[in-house]
């Protein structure tokens, strides 16, 4: 095993003492990227998949709160109804020239959340996984930038966060059945996740894995990682924060 994303008890978050100025700097660079896309007509897709309670909403909000609302969209389409190509709702949600689209729900849902919850069978998942690499290659060939992030947390941390939600009356009432069963289904989700990575991690559309056991550090790390891996005018890498919590998927990584 190369890396296990499991937070140690009583571990001090690595970014606990960062100043507010340090946290602000990646967002200045994010504004440069947005301006570059607006000028060049570039189209950026940022796709997120995550374990329950990994903090996906917080990561996305950390992007969007510093960008103009006319230039971004946060989308959560559901795969096509019967009689409709599964990818149609996702294709219609793609960003237009100069836009950034954050996919809170992506075409991977059927092979991960739905399959784990037995809402999709193996044949349905297989069909999606078979069609995904050529679909993503078509996007890239058409000029889209595509970044795929998986937000990971350890089983103990997931259990702690679930218990914290249960202890809060209002949050407890909003918990879904999938979230309530997330710890029990942790290993089954991992099994499906490894298959997704093995089938859809490609040279042109790689997966990046973010260790989200420390939410605050992960939010900044994902932004800095994206900025470090995309070209835009006026980039100043000295203003990017540490993105070591994000790494490219390899077959030797277990989590």
Please tell me about this protein's structure.
With 255 residues, the chain is of the alpha/beta class. Helices cover 43% and strands 13% of the residues. The protein has 10 helices and 6 strands, in the order αβαβαβααβααααβαβ. It has helices at residues 20-40, 56-64, 88-92, 113-116, 122-141, 155-166, 169-174, 177-180, 186-200, 215-228, and strands spanning 43-50, 72-75, 100-103, 144-152, 207-211, 246-248. A 6-stranded mixed beta sheet has the order 2-3-1-4-5-6, with helices on both faces. Helix 1 runs parallel beside helix 10 and helix 2 (56-64) crosses helix 10 (215-228). The longest helix has 21 residues, at 20-40.
Task: Name the features.
disordered N terminus; 6 strands; six-stranded mixed β-sheet; alpha/beta; 255 residues
Q: Termini distance?
A: 9 Å
Shape: globular
Count the E strands.
6
Strand portion: 5-15%
Give the topology string: H per helix, E per strand.
HEHEHEHHEHHHHEHE
Work out the helix count. Answer: 10
**Mean of residue pLDDT?**
89
Helix content: 40-55%
Given the helix and strand composition, which structural class is it? Answer: alpha/beta
Stretches with pLDDT under 50, minimum 5 residues: 1-24
Structure in a nutshell:
The protein is of the alpha/beta class and 255 residues long.
Task: Present the secondary structure layout.
Blueprint: H1 20-40, E1 43-50, H2 56-64, E2 72-75, H3 88-92, E3 100-103, H4 113-116, H5 122-141, E4 144-152, H6 155-166, H7 169-174, H8 177-180, H9 186-200, E5 207-211, H10 215-228, E6 246-248
Parallel strand pairs: 1-3, 1-4, 2-3, 4-5
Antiparallel strand pairs: 5-6
Helix pairs in contact: 1-10, 2-10
């Amino acid at each position: 095993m190369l890396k296990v994303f499991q937070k140690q008890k009583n571990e001090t978050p690595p970014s606990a003492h960062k100043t507010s100025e340090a946290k602000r700097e990646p967002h200045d660079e994010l504004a440069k990227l947005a301006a570059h896309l607006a000028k060049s007509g570039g189209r950026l897709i940022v796709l997120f998949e995550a374990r329950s309670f990994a903090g996906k909403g917080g990561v996305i909000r950390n992007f969007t709160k510093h960008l103009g609302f006319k230039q971004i969209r946060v989308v959560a389409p559901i795969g096509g109804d019967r009689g409709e190509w599964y990818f149609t709702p996702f294709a219609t949600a793609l960003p237009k020239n100069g836009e950034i689209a954050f996919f809170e729900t992506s075409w991977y849902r059927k092979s991960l959340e739905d399959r784990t919850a037995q809402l999709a069978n193996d044949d349905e998942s297989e069909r999606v996984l078979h069609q995904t690499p050529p679909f993503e290659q078509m996007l890239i060939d058409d000029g889209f930038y595509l970044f795929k992030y998986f937000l990971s947390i350890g089983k103990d941390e997931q259990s702690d966060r679930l218990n914290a939600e249960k202890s809060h009356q209002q949050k407890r009432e909003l918990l879904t059945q999938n979230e309530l069963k997330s710890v029990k289904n942790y290993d089954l989700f991992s099994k499906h996740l490894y298959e997704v990575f093995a089938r859809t991690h490609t040279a042109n559309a790689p997966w990046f894995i973010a260790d989200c056991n420390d939410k605050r550090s992960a939010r900044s790390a994902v932004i800095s990682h994206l900025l470090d891996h995309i070209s835009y005018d006026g980039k100043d890498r000295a203003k990017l924060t540490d993105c070591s919590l994000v790494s490219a998927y390899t077959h030797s990584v277990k989590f």
